[in-house]
TrEMBL record:
One Pfam family named in its UniProt record: Response_reg
Keywords: Phosphoprotein
PTM-bearing positions, type 4-aspartylphosphate: 57
Record Gene3D superfamilies: 3.40.50.2300
InterPro entries referenced in this protein's UniProt entry, alphabetically: Bact_response_regulator, CheY-like_superfamily, Sig_transdc_resp-reg_receiver
Family annotation (SMART domains): REC (SM00448)
Species for this entry: Desulfuromonas versatilis
Stretches assigned to the Response regulatory domain: 7-124
Protein name: Response regulator
Gene: cheY40H-4
Amino acid sequence: MSAKNFKLLIVEDSPTMRQLIVFALKRVREFTIVEASDGVDGLKKIAGNRFDLILTDINMPIMDGLKLVSLVRNDPANKDVPIIIITTEGAQEDRERAMALGANEYLTKPIQPTRVLEAVKRLLKV
């Protein structure tokens, strides 16, 4: 594992689901994790920080994860930040839409902590 520290943003409206994702990622000491409760909150946190990776749900109030992906991809400062979608939407068309918008990985709930951690490590190349 690299000695580099990585800053991750988790955008998820369910506090319980956020806790599960944080629990999965806290196994790696080099990860600093910031949490956001929806797309708007996530966007505010992105505006004031530089993240190495973003994990987001699709279905959230105020701003959904697909809109967030689209906005991040259109932001020159963050367009290359890897994004993982974690969602209950398991249909192929939902997956294709998310990937077309610029998501790097699409995981369906219920989450498996090892799969989340593997996807994060693969995208961060650690």
